[in-house]
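Memo to structure team: turn this sequence into structure tokens by end of day. - J.P.
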Amino acid sequence: MRQYLGDTPFFASKGRIRVLKMIVGLIAVIFILRLGQLQIIKGEEYKYLSETQAIKQVRIEPFRGNVYDRNGKLIVHNESSFSITLTPYDFKIETMPLLASLLETDSVSIMKTINQYKTFSKFTPIKIYKDAKFDIVSRISEYYDDLPGIDVAVESKRLYEFDGNLGHLLGYTREVTKAQLEKNKDYYPGDNIGQSGIEQTYERDLKGKHGIQYVAVNKFGQKVASFDKGSNDSPTINGFDLQLGIDIKLQELAEKLLDGRRGAIVGIDPNNGDILVLASKPDFDPRAFTGKVPYELFKQLSEDPASPLLHRAVQSQYPPGSTWKMLIAIAAMQEGIINEHSQIFCGGGLEYGGRYRKCHGGSHGNIDVETAIKVSCNTFFYQLGLKLGLEKFEYYGKLFGFGQKTGIDLQNEKAGRLPTKDWLINKLGKGSEGYIHGNMVNYGIGQGEILVTPLQMAVYTAAIANGGKIFQPHIVNSIKNTITQKKETLNIRSREININPIIINAIKEGMYGVVNSAGGTASAARLPGIDVCGKTGTAQNPHGNDHAWFVCFAPKENPKIALVVFVENAGFGGGVSAPIAHDILNAFFNPDKEVKPLTPKTDSKANDSLFIEQPIDIQIIETDENQNENP
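Reply from structure team:
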């Protein structure tokens, strides 16, 4: 007997249809959510589980690019090294005691490494032990079946084929940090990345590209054979090779000559900006960063009071002293204040602002610019500084690149400081304009608030040598593409500074006299058969002994090298830095002869010049030591 609700059968009622639709819809939603969980949330895991029943992806490490010096000598290359990796998903925690025993370490250290990368995919292998010795690799292989998730990976470590360090120039590689991994998707936990020097600057070129190998695996996820004869594998691409402008023999000599000192040596080819020498002491040995790096190494280097990680050639900033005098002379002649024949009287000093500033070497009488450079007459340049004025001083300082970074292909270069009117007013306060003008007495001889790097001084010296062209200094001059097997030359910036050739010639004559004429302050740099042009400098240091500068180039005509030698707290440039420059120039121009080094003299009385450059009693405005760059 049918039941009716009004005129409509119950089973055909709209209410029952609505309920059925809701049930069907709910079931559909449940299936969709479950499907989404399987496909999206758990998809990677289940895909991995299915694939690991048969195949597994293995990353093949590329070799970093090699490094050659300017003459094609191989100075940095690689050798194979073994790392022990752990894949978190496959690893069984109960095997930890066995693993720690085989690695001769403790489980806490292993877990610390694992936890460091716990936010990354648990299917990604983690390098838990680098540069494993053969006996450790053998033990791991012996217990391979008992250590699911543990594998041996082949990678590379750096080898250095030269004496010395080149630590600041080459830099070093170190394990990629968590922060770097998050920014660079091409890296994996345990990979190495360039952290300083050209290893950092050219990381993308040197790194190469990982290859992928597909292998058949057993039920523990351990590889047992190649899959499908390697038809699906992708090849490893090794890093590109770098050719430097460095002369490795010259570099080795420069480092030896700086041993036991704090300072820097920079050599540049004035014709193209190639860096021939770039030494800084104290330094560090990049070999210590290859393979398994001791945990305390970086901390020890960072806390060392000698600051071995500080690259003094490009990061330390000092007053230039008398090496600045050529710039003042160029500016004064270019502005028509003097010419190459003009004479200024030196009576042994200058009275200005109620103070008498002495000149070293007594009274020079009436002298021209060439003689003033040769004997380093302070009185001459005191007066030129005052006549030039701060605005022109700033203009020509910037023209030669001071107060600016040179653009060398190294990180963390400093810009030095070129005092400007605005900077000085900000420092001294309003109403100090008269005092600021008086600063030009100090600036005329390279003292006061001026700060330069040895690299900037090398670029400046090279511009004088080549007649007025500024080249961007560079360590690397070409990159060999390992895919095309072609060398790619780098594009180097350059600019003309348009100085009258007559002026440049007068400066060169003065610098020639510094080294080769009686009364010059750098006879120790004299080299038979080579016309060396140079300038000494003794920079006052309010925090200790004076610094010793020597800048030079050679030969006088068609110069091949511009060189800067700087030694901290060493006294007089002519007695300390000039002999070092002599030895480097001798090795550069006589590469096949044995170099007999001069012994750098720290006692100013040993200088055989008639006039010894001495520090002058001048007032230095106290400046903020943390103020590194020109505002």
